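fyi for ur records
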Amino acid sequence: MSSALAEHRWLSEDNRIAHEKGIRKGVEEGLVQGKAEDLLMILSVRGVDVPDAARQRIAATADLAQLDAWLRAAATADTLDEVLDV
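which gave:
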């Protein structure tokens, strides 16, 4: 195998791996954004006031486990503190 062909395969494999990582990152970012939006919607439907600072905190959270915990708490919470203190 020529060195140019070997280099091309190596570059192609690196590109494939980088592409797959990019897709996984994009999917995770979409999940995070969707959960944050769902959380805000649940709080709104339940009549829980969410000040701008709390909205920013929720939107800035990239931890899926934290968002899941907040979503579970939001299902029964009467106050924002009951959600964000989880």
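The CA atoms of residues 48 and 81 lie 10 Å apart. thats all i got for now
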